[in-house]
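Sanity check record (used in CI):
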Amino acid sequence: MSDSITQHVSHCILCGKCLQVCPLLRATGREELGPRSKSDLCRVLAEDPAKLSETDAARLAGLCLGCGRCREVCSQGQDVPGLVAALRAAHPNFKSWLWKTWLTRARQLWSPSAKAAGLVPERFRTERLGPMLKMLAGMTGGPGLDPFLTPKTFPDTLRGEKLLLFAGCTANYVQGRWLMAALRLLDGLGAEVLPGDFACCGSGLKGAGFTDESTAMAERNVAVWRKAGRPRITVFCASCLAGLRAYDCFASEAEAAQWADSLLPLSVAVRGIEFVIADNVPERLGYHHPCHAGADDPDRAFLREVLGDRLIRATDAQCCGFGGVMRLAAPGLTEPVNRQCWDALEGADVVLSGCSACLAQLSATAPEDVEVGHWLEIIR
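Expected output for (Fe-S)-binding protein:
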């Protein structure tokens, strides 16, 4: 039993709070897939490693969406996603290697893979592989949503401020329109965007058990921030923001606090902008709340303020079912989670979100008559 696994094991008081919030358990009804079962099995591993085979441990490691909802409600500080990540690190397999390669070589792989997936004939798109191929094909960017919000007036809250923009891998390599929309908004706000060669946030690698690679990315991103003079960093991907907030590679507690204070969700920065809504606004809009956005989801608050009662549907407890490496390890278990998400969004013609991973999953599984896009896409 590795130290990295043992350090995440804590005493469970069987309160059941984690069972109430786990989207995988809710969708499947299988308690052995819930956080408490994973915690119990890891405790057994810590006490007597011979009681559980490496094969069982490796299988357990793949059966977690990594949403973090259980960690948020645990009164004992149990970190089940941390346990799962440590197990994945201790028992790597081909699928985890494939996931690592996909994330660390995004610049080289994403565009060619998307083009190749788009060439696969329809008859080969089986029920099992179809959503994955659609997700890959969608990574060419596509036409995007028809924008219907136009900025009318800008506040002076950021005027003259120098800041960094953390766009994330999807915006940098696939969805350039998100990056351009963000830059237009920041320009209207009067901010000066400093150059910064950020790496991936590393959260996807951390959850898959690749701690060294994730730490290296974190250290590089913190070094970019230091070199720029420690300015504020604006972010428009909920998963990236959560990943950046989880960094622990600082020289002191004071620097860690300064980093935390520097992270600025773009949806918070634009709250003072007055928008004009065009006539082409969809009648029925939905919003998907990403698991990693937390209870105080700034993207949802921004959209409710601007769109009002046009936002007719929103998820809350539902997960999109992406699950990182679990999407490769056990796609059959992610599908019922995804179906519950779409049940909550039923009736919406357009679904918005602020998480690149959620958007990839929802775009690949959306009903034929429903469009999906980042909230930045609706702004001219």
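Residues 225 and 231 are 7 Å apart (CA to CA). If this sentence no longer matches the regenerated tokens, the check is flagged for review.
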